[in-house]
Structures are given as C-alpha cells and as structure tokens.
Amino acid sequence: MHKKLLSFLFLLSLLIVLLSSCNGEENSEYTPIPTSPVTVDLTQVPYPKLSDYHFFEGDMKNQLPSLNVIPYKPASSLFSDYAHKKRFIWMPIGLKGTYNGDGNVLELPVGAALIKTFYYDNVQPNNDTRIIETRIMIRKSTGWIFANYVWNTEQTEAFLDLNGSYTNISWKDDNNVIQTANYRIPSEVQCITCHKKKEIINNVEQVVHIPIGIKPQNLNFNYTYGNVSQNQLTKWIEQGYLENNFTLPTEANTTIDYNDTSKSLHLRARSYVDINCAHCHTEGRHCDYRPMRYSFTETGSANGLANMGVCVSTQDMQNFPPALSKIVTPGNINRSMMYYRLNTDNETYRMPLHGRTIIHQEGIALMEQWINSLTPCN
User: Fold this and answer.
1) Which residues belong to the signal peptide in this entry (predicted)?
2) Average of per-residue pLDDT values in the chain
3) Which tens digit of pLDDT belongs to each residue from 28-75?
4) At 121, is the secondary structure helix, strand, or coil?
5) Domain of 367?
6) Domain shared by 64 and 211, yes or no
7) Number of helices and strands (H, E) in the chain?
8) Which of 286, 244, 227, 296 is nearest to 74 (CA)?
9) With left for phi above 0 and alpha for psi between -120 and 50, is residue 355 left, alpha or beta?
C-alpha cells in the first residue's frame, strides 16, 4: 500500500512538472497582438486637439504615423502656395473602401479618416520646418465632416479652428531664393466650396461633401513604405482598407506628376487641371455652370480639348478684358481666359477660387507651353 502511494505521488509530481513545462513554453512563445492607439469616436469628433486622435507616435510634429495609419500621395498635388503636404488614411478594423471607377473618389466606410498636414521647410530666419495646419475629413453616418487644426508656435499641438485665418510665412525655395506668402488657412465654408457635390437622393437634389484626391487614377503608382516600394492601391488592399474586386487603372487612365518633363506636354497639362481645377469644374460641382470639364477622364475623351476650353467662347463671362474671347486661344496666352485667371493673385479673378494667394510660377509655365503647342482654331 505504501509503495502504491509513493508511486502515485511520483506520477502526480511528474505530471505537474510536465504541465508546468508546457505552460512555460506557451508563455515564452506568446506574442501580444499590437493594437492601434487611434481614437475616432464618431459621437465626439471633431476633438478639440489633434493629439486627441493619436494618429501619430512620439513627438507629433515628426508626423510618424501610428499603427494602421497609412501614408499616401497622389500623382500630382494641388498647388497651395508651395506648401508641402503629408497625407494619411486610417480606417476602423474590418471595414473596407470600395471602388467606384478609375476617375471617381473611393467610397470609404463610416469611421474612416483622411489626414493632411501642410508645412514649409527652410522657414526663415532659422531654416527650420514649420507646420501650419492639419486638415482632417471624417466619415460619419450622415456624411463627411471637416476638422481643421492650426498648429501652435511651439509646434507641440494643433487646435480645432474652423473659422479660417491668415499667417505670414517666409521660406527659402529650392533655388535659395527667399519667398513669402500670406498663407490662408481655410474656413469650413471655403472647404465646403471645393468639396461639395450635388447628388440626387430619394428623387431630391442634395449637396453632400466628398474627398478630392483619393481616386484610383491618382493613386496608381508606387509609394515607398519604409524600405518597400509598393503600388498604393495594392497596399490599401493588403492593409484591408480596400476591396480586392477591381482591376488597377490602365496607364491611359492614370494621372502623372505634372512636373515630370519626360511625359508628354498634353498629359502633363491634363494632370495639372485635373488636380487643380476639376474639383469645381465637373458636373454637380461648384462651377458646373461653366462649359469646362477638367477631370482627367473628360479631358481624355473625344471632346477632350473642348472640355479643356480650347477654342470655347467666353461670351457669358462678364467684367473681363474683351481680348479674352476664348477660354483657351491656341498659341496666344494673352487671349486665353484660363491663363489670365491662373496668372493673377487678385482674389476677384484668380483660379482656383481658394487654396492659393500667390501665383504658381511652374504651373503657369506649363500651361503657357501647352497653349502655345495647340493648333489654331478653325
């Protein structure tokens, strides 16, 4: 009996040791699943401070994205007084955006956030970096809302401000020339002007707000994520941010960087007006009463030149010099309304309506070259 008891105790001890060993192995191999610190409570946004979202790790001015906050970049950028931009997207786990055509904005789910920071390098007098503002668009069940955050002088925080304002900025450009601008931080009303779209909902025309740049045609090129270069649309699919149920745009349906002089002049001009003008000059948008249709899709159609205003009369446009008889007069910038409005900083006449206070010299040079390349009107 005594031997049986000892044997039982020995076997029990051995079993306990084995179980403990197994548990130890499991614990040593266990790796916690990282979770994103991002907080977007749709009942509370917009938050009073940018830091409340936790979109960035560490020192916020370094713009290091938190887990699942993905940087992105369109092929061409809207001119904003030479400000640089950093763009990011974040979406709740398990939700995906959907494709709606190469030239249409991706349909993002409720809870999605688009983040865009505007900043300058080589700011005078110390040649440092200054962040001006961070704009956020958040998708609620009722539609997209705007949240604009203005950075403090210390560059430690940005605070919600939808009223709009101006701030003076002086910086050294790539040619070591000092440039200045009275940079305009937009109000919510100005944001709406460029982001609004008329839609028919339940047989009633309504105005909704939508993003501008996140179209497949604009994202169909590689971006460097750390040490890996990858197509942005493919990255979004792998991240779980986009349904994998469409074909990537063809080269013909993909915009380019309008600064790329290796590309055709006409393609560069089309890409320029798409990103700088199409958000207003498209059906259902702010300036759809004008004949121009500047979206990349429409300027690539059979009526592409007419959609860009080539040889199109300006007879309904009042209070302009009479010499501006055409929106674009081939070979003559001085008789082209488009060039006139791009080449002025007068707020009454300049185009785009918002987003700039100074003239985009490189853009003007591109459009002048394009206008001079066109065949004269019949």
Assistant:
1) 1-24
2) 90
3) 466 667 888 999 999 999 999 999 999 999 999 999 999 999 999 999
4) strand
5) 256-373
6) yes
7) 9, 14
8) 296
9) left
